[in-house]
Amino acid sequence: MTIAAVSAIAFDAGFQRQALQTTRIASPMSRWPRFAEARASWMWPTRKALVRVVDSDGCEGWSCTNGGEITALIVNEQLARIVGGADADDPAAIWSQMFHALLPVDRSGIAGMAVAAVDIALWDLRARRDGVALVDLLGGARADSMACYATTTAPEAQAGTPWWGLKAAMPWGPEGGAEGLAQNLALLRRFRAAAGPDRPIMLDAFMAWDADYTLRIAEAAAETGLYWIEDPLPPQDMDGLRRLRAEGGEDLRLALGNFCFNRWDCKALLDEGLVDVLQPDVAWAGGITEALEILALAEGAGVPVVLHNTCEQPWALALAAARINDPLVEFVDRGAGSELYSLMGPPPPCTGGRIPAPVAPGLNQPPPALAARLSDRPQPAKA
Question: Core-most of 123, 154, 209, 340, by most CB within 10 Å?
């Protein structure tokens, strides 16, 4: 079976209107006051990109990622030419061809998202053609359900829900001085009160800190029993990560990998022992084919993997259920009624802080009106 067409469109799913975008949360841009109060003031293209792959029999596969118009441009103008006519049953070969075709311009970032989106759609195509759930194509669920933690801006609202743990997005970085640090610590105390004494609390610094500030926070927050610090430094600051590992002690757990876009990014962290919890995003880090490589590397290094933003990605839930022992997954609290919960099918139910393994076929499905927009789009010409 060969690939007949690959296409993508950008669409607005309300990403910029959620609390994580409109409230003060530390970021790499926090050092500039005009960008500090809201991520929505600067963040990369925040429209989503929907991708559709069709084989020579007319069977289709779907996926979704970030990067909006830029991702759609890469898919439509470059990757469609590479993938058209390829063997639909060999996603590893297609992945390699896509990756190498983009090497002259990029091997990460939005280019990685474009590769990921096509790859995920190819796996969805295979599962649909075989009439099986993706989790079964990946080897079958290892458990009936998975523990789930919540990332939220409103810890008190989540206090009564039996999540595995709660994660805070930090409002301040070094630019906030002593007052900003005090507000960060006050927020962590609110999370500890909401979680109670026995559930983990974590924080996400979104690349906004440096090594000095991270060590100060880790020491000052010891009273809260902080379980991990996620992405405190820009990913290129390997010297800073080495310092955190050398000076942070055993209680400083680093959750890294959200901004790793392929196996080589992850391998650098694993080889140097810099990461305690690896957190790649399947829709960014090359898709399912590359995530399988990353999971194998992490298993070899003895490092647990928690796939980023799992509950909005049916393919990530399938990977976690099929390829991770005793998996932990992430729910991002977007606020009531957010479109982001159901971009690719109904949101997974949560009972007792656990998400069921996605064992039914066809769970990965965009809303009909959105799917129709892409199905009706003229297909890019083959190379």
Answer: 209
